[in-house]
Each structure stands twice: as C-alpha cells, then as structure tokens.
Amino acid sequence: MFNEKIKKVALSATAITALSAGAAAAQEACTNYTVQDGDTMATIAIAAYGTSNYQPIFNANRNEITNPNALEPGLVLALPCEDGSLPNGQSAQEIIAAEEQRAASVKRSSVYQPPIKLVTGNGWAPFADESLNGGGAITRLGTTALQRGGNARDYSVSFVDDWNSHLETLLPLGAFDVSMAWNMPDCTNRTYEWSWETEVRCTQFDSSVPVYDIVVGFYTIPESQYANATTFEELKGATICRMDGWFIHDLEQEGLHNGETITLMQPITARECLDAVLTGTADVATFEVQLFSDTMVEMGLNQNDLVENPYVTSLSSLRFISHRSNPFGKQYLAMLNKGLNEMRETGEWYAIVSDTLREHNEKLMAASN
Hints:
Elements: H1 2-21, E1 31-34, H2 41-49, H3 55-60, E2 76-79, H4 92-104, E3 116-120, H5 137-145, E4 155-159, H6 163-170, E5 178-183, H7 196-204, E6 205-207, E7 212-220, E8 239-241, H8 249-252, E9 263-265, H9 270-279, E10 284-288, H10 289-299, E11 307-308, E12 314-323, H11 329-346, H12 348-368
C-alpha cells in the first residue's frame, strides 16, 4: 500500500539520521522529522515552510496522525517537499503521468453508457475551482476515479456556486448525478440533537468513502478568553463564525447549538468571519486550516493577529454524494469508491492532491507579490 511505503521511507531516513547525527531530523521541508515534546502541527509547519498551514503535512501522514492536537513524541513525520512530493519519492507529476499512461492502455468497453453528470461549486480553491488544473483537487480526484479501479465512464462536470441548491434542487430533481465535496455527519450517531441540515444529509443522500480529510481549526485574537480553551465545553457562550452553507454537525455533536449554547454567525466568506473576530463581532472563527492560511495571506495578516486554538479542532471528510431517488446513485458511488481505493494504493491520490496544492500556492504567492 502507498501509505505503507510512506512509513517505510520515513523510518529508513530516520534510522540514517540517527546514525549520522545522533539526533532527530531538523524541521525542514523534504525531510523526515521526529516529533519532539512540545511540538504542534502548526509549529512544525512554521519551522519547515514559514506558514502555520499544516494541512499538507497532515495529508502526507494521514495514517500516522489520529489527533492533530496531540502529537506523540517520537512519531516520525514525512515533511513534503516544496513541490508536494515526499522525501525520497517520485514527484507528483511522475506518478500522475505513469498512472495516466497505464490507464490509457486498458481496453475500454464499446458499449455506450451515458456520461455521469458531476457537479461541484466554484471559488473554493484548492478543492473546487475552475481556474485550477482539472477544476481543483476534489474535482480531479472524482474525474480520475471514474477512469480507475476498472471504471471507464465518461462524465461531464459543471460548477454551480450555490451549494445549497445542490441539496435542495439539483440532485433531488436529477439535474446531476453526483455532487462533489460534501462534509457528511456520522449518521449512526443520534446522541445529539440533529439540525435540519444534518437530518437532510443523513436521510436523503448516500455518500462515498472519504475523499479528503480536512482539519477544522478554531481561531481567535491572542488575548481572547477562548484562545486556550481546552475543550469544546469551554467554547459555550461564545459567538462563533462559520460561513453560510458550511456544515455545523461537528459543533452540534459537541453540544454547541445555535441559540442555545452558542451564537452562530454565518456570513458568505471566510474573510468576513476573520473580520468579525478582529472587530469583536465574533469571538471565534472556525473553518479548515488551508482556507484560514489562504485568507490570512489575502488580508495581509500575520501569525500574531489571529491564533489557532492549540487544543480544539475537528476532523471532517469531504465526500461525493448522490440523492437516494437517483436509481443509479449507489452504482456511481461504488464506481467512485473503487477508483479512489486504487488511487490511494498507487499513490495517485496523494500526487493529485499535492500537485493541486502546489499550483494553488504558486498562484496565491504570485497574487500577493
């Protein structure tokens, strides 16, 4: 398995470092690093890359990290190179080219089957954005999965920015078969009060295996009483900002209900959430770490203006979904699952993710200069 290859590379490099230097590797990009007492994902990312965005490190070590807020000393992490490739590994472009060549050699069926109609949103780089190669990481993973794992299905991709319309009209009415990039709650967990949104997602839609795991951070001004909250319980009473159309089931399952234990603000953009915290309109902004890092750069803020709570995060998986009224929905999701599973085995999943992050970061840096 590809993730096992990552682990073997990390252990091998660590053994060499220990023999030659007698100490843990430095926190440098394109190396393997042994976690020390007091390290956090953010401090490692800052030392290695000059940014607190640790999502790329999390991607590269997903099987090793169960809780981003509790790194065990002695854990060996593969720190990706600047181009996203792994230490001592092939580049993303090499892996992608090899897999595309292999797929092109597979004999396709001559039986006509209608294209699967895929839909996603736009302007959510690096995940779904028309300006990025293949429409962003999630879009590339979806379209590639339909050509892997024994699949050979044609498809069409549309970008509809109104995410709520995917749930309310586009999928239920059959305008599209699969919508890409949705956070789905644990629908087996009825220990908390479900909101309307959670009820709809759990009762009307089917979902794929996890496509991409995101870390959701909680951000405050440094002097906030919530900056060092050690549990979700300590966030009760806060005004929390998360954008309209985003999931809130992670808050609900921690007992943070709008109008009861918290006040929830839901503007359109991440920038509005950060502005709300800076001006005191909100106490906490919460969304995924990649978007936080990008928005900080766009706003010209530095790491002392807003800080991530070091104890409170949530993990969520982006998935593909289909409406249960679609007679082929489960079949299409099964095809996507097969393709995704093969891509994880071959390394193509990580290659596509890292290649898209590289492209996105290059564009972001060019725009900020």
